[in-house]
Amino acid sequence: MTLSPFSNASMNITVITGSVVLDLVVNTSISTFAVLNLRETDTTTLSLTYLQTTTPDRLDIGRITLSLLNVPSGSVLPTQTLPPSVSIPPFTPTITTTATATLTLGPTASSSSQQGEDRKRLVSYAVGLTLGLGLGLTAVVSGAYVLWRRRRRKQEEMADGNKDNLDSRAEAQSQSRRFGREQKDNMDTRWF
Predict the structure, then answer these.
(1) Chain centre to alpha carbon of residue 142
(2) CA-to-CA distance for 158 and 78, rounded, in angstroms?
(3) Dihedral pair phi/psi, residue 63, rounded to 5°
(4) Percentage above 90 pLDDT, the chain
(5) Average pLDDT of the chain, as a whole number
């Protein structure tokens, strides 16, 4: 087995073959390990365990080499064992209803016609909601615009001294006001 030169961790190597157990704690800065002269008739187990310390360590295994005789009776790698199977308990859903509804259908109603009616109802709700919101918002915005224009015209008239809408002026001033209107040449197109 070869280890990377960057490896600096401690590990426990355990080799079990027949009745012989070899257990070593080594520093992995030594780059090569070898287990030699094992009996070919015994099963051998190699176990590597990383030993955790308080400092950060690194364990890099570069290569593991196994030399075996060409014997078809054995396996190099351990057999894969599956975890023990766990049986899942049966699941029975419980349905509780808190409210009941009664729906009376005609004798010829079927589930497809019911679905068609539900779809028509949903479409009509969507169309009604869209039209209602569109028309309602248009009315509100139009009303706000009309009020804003009226207020703005009144403010301009007050600033210009042209008080056409005020009736509190003296009669002498009303003559000049009529003359002023004639000079406007019908440019005043107010609706109110």
Answers:
(1) 41
(2) 101
(3) -155, 140
(4) 15
(5) 73
Reported as half-sphere exposure (CB side, CA atoms, 13 A), residue 171 has a value of: 0
Residues 11/48, Cβ–Cβ less than 8 Å: yes
* Whole-number pLDDT of residue 103: 47
Listed by start position, the domains of the chain span: 2-63, 119-176
Q: Phi/psi of residue 133, each to 5°?
A: -65, -40
Do you know the residue count of the chain?
192
User: Alpha helices of the chain — where are they, by DSSP H?
Assistant: 111-160, 171-183
Q: What does DSSP assign to residue 32?
A: B
- Report residue 84 as tokens: 């023990």
Q: How far is CA 42 from the centre of its chain?
A: 57
- Tell me, yes or no, if the pTM score tops 0.90: no
Residue 151 has pLDDT above 80, yes or no: yes
Strands 44-51 and 20-27: what pairing? unpaired
Mean pLDDT of 139-157: 93
The pairing of strands 2-3 and 61-63 is antiparallel
